[in-house]
Specification:
- The chain is mainly alpha-helical and 93 residues long.
- It has one domain.
- 98% of the residues lie in helices and 0% in strands.
- The radius of gyration is 40 Å and the shape is rod-shaped.
Amino acid sequence: MEASFAKAKRIRALRTSTALKTKLASLEAAANNTGGRLLETILLIREEIECKAEERRAEEEKRHRGEVAAQEARYLADKAEAQERRREEKLER
């Protein structure tokens, strides 16, 4: 009777051990898959951030060019106005 109890106990321990090993293997596989997906997500977010930054830089450069063009236009308008005033002042004398 003791031999069969010990044998049954060994078999139960072996089954439990096998089940735990299987569960551990599946958990390790899931962790590896999650890590891969996490890395993929991080890279995707990084690419998206870089794209948005490039768009912001392009928009800022476009805005800067617009400001420079507006300053140049104001300068030329002021210069033309000053020349016109000087010309009128000469005519008044």
